[in-house]
């Protein structure tokens, strides 16, 4: 901890906490995420997975890993600080004024897809994509963060522990006890895109049971008519209830009807 001085705590959760720190040598700011290490050996491995998987990523739309170290029963992950906060806060702020512009929606969505494509290309699944885990930089680009639920594709973990994530963003196949796959991340990204378009969750209900029913039917309130055809088209395809019918992020960015439009916003 001597390398860094603490500025303030910016997030607290079940894992431990996220602290904004400053490097004493360079004066650069970082986020230091402290995770309480369990004593149990197999749980220990899964706690370390977050640092290992984040360290494998290197992309402008993914929070950059700096280093990780352990001491006093804590795992510390030092990463890039995104000064614009998380996208959920940004959406809540926007609810007080007006909708995001189409330009803005397309830019952020294209950046999220670019980040997600990098993750999937490395055969990793994020498994907890949601507006709260997407961060904004000072110059208003977005970066995917929080690899605390991530896993390697086709690993036994992807099967064993199917339900991770936050209920609003969970794909129908997960409620159906099928393994998590790359298209489940696409579903979650669709939920974030819908949130950007309407400032509301696509699937909302007063009970778990009715939420799950809506998700499994793929029943969401239609997007407002003023939004361009491409956004209607994307949402419709990302919310296909059968994961096989959903495009991959690669397809969205390279060979989908909307790819050219998206790439022009990158
Ligand atoms: P958790 O496992 O508790 O969800 P996160 O990694 O999502 O942990 O961090 C918790 C909160 O801390 C985030 O929602 C965000 O508000 C803040 N935070 C985490 N990492 C960063 C970062 N790199 N830049 C800015 N804020 C961050
Ligand atoms: Mg989080």
UniProtKB/TrEMBL annotation:
Any one Gene Ontology MF annotation carried by this entry is: ATP binding
Task: Using the record's annotation, list all stretches that form the Protein kinase domain.
Answer: 4-259
Tell whether Calcium is among the UniProt keywords.
Answer: no
Q: What keywords does the record list, in alphabetical order?
A: ATP-binding, Kinase, Nucleotide-binding, Serine/threonine-protein kinase, Transferase
Protein biosynthesis as UniProt keyword = no
- Highest taxon above the source species: Eukaryota
Q: Which amino acid positions bind ATP, per UniProt? A: 33
Query: Which family, according to the similarity comment?
Result: Belongs to the protein kinase superfamily. NEK Ser/Thr protein kinase family. NIMA subfamily.
- The protein depicted here goes by the name Protein kinase domain-containing protein
Q: Which residues of the full protein are shown?
A: 1 to 266 of 344
């Amino acid at each position: 901890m001597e390398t860094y001085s603490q500025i303030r705590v910016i997030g607290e959760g079940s894992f431990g906490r996220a602290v904004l720190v400053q490097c004493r040598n360079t004066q650069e700011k970082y986020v230091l995420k402290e995770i309480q290490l369990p004593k149990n050996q197999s749980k220990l491995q899964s706690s370390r997975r977050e640092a290992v998987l984040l360290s494998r990523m290197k992309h402008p739309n993914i929070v950059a890993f700096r280093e990780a170290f352990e001491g006093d029963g804590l795992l510390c992950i030092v990463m890039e600080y995104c000064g614009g906060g998380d996208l959920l806060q940004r959406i809540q702020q926007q609810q007080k004024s007006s909708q995001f512009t189409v330009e803005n929606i397309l830019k952020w969505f294209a950046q999220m897809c670019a980040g997600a494509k990098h993750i999937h290309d490395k055969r990793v699944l994020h498994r907890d994509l949601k507006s709260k885990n997407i961060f904004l930089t000072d110059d208003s680009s977005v970066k995917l963060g929080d690899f605390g639920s991530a896993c390697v594709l086709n690993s036994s973990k992807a099967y064993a522990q199917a339900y991770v994530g936050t209920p609003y963003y969970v794909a129908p196949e997960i409620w159906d006890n099928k393994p998590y796959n790359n298209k489940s991340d696409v579903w979650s990204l669709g939920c974030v895109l819908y949130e950007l378009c309407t400032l509301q969750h696509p699937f909302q209900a007063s009970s778990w049971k009715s939420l799950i029913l809506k998700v499994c039917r793929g029943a969401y309130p239609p997007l407002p008519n003023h939004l361009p055809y491409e956004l209607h088209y994307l949402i419709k395809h990302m919310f296909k209830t059968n994961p096989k019918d959903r495009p991959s992020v690669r397809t969205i960015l390279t060979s989908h009807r909307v790819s050219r439009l998206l790439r022009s916003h990158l």
